[in-house]
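User: Quick sanity check before I run a bigger batch. Here is a single chain. Can you write out its predicted 3D structure?
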Amino acid sequence: MATEIDINRIQKDMFIEYKGEPYRVLDYEHVKPGKGQAFVRVKAKNMKTGNVTEITFKASDKIQLADFEQVYATYSYNDGENYYFMNTQTYDMTAIPKENIENEAKFLKEGMEVIVFLYKGQPVGIELPKHVELKVVETEPAFKGDTQAGGTKPAKLETGAVIQVPFFVKEGDIVKVDTRTGSYVERVKEEK
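Assistant: Done. Predicted structure follows.
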């Protein structure tokens, strides 16, 4: 049986069920307008579709916690349709359809440790580490004077993702990427 809690007890990263769908709370705000009833505005990600939605609840509402489980796993491979992850505790393989993790797959590297989300026992998504280090496999060379201007250029990473990097980054460099925003953080290792 699902657990119900008062909306005022909501927290970030909590898993809730709304209209029969599983959501992860990204952010929330308690609003007390001058006139009218107080309410809670929740920004949540649908764990099946990946869409981010804003949901408004009355302060007196109750919400249902989703039947969620988090499992630590290592990414093994993909066959074009599914991505396969090995549970680090039981060594069982879990297949997740590629459409469930399209955004995360851009930064997924073989052997990477992730968290697999199970909703009612079925895998629905993953969470990557906040930062990953990936090799730049393709980018335009910098020209003299470019690095002074402080602009950016596109760079293709070893996983196939394309991100914006500073002009001084070259092919073969290892860069740190923020997986939540898909943005460049820093150059970790320079190609000699």
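The first helix runs from residue 102 to 105.

User: Great, the batch can go ahead then.
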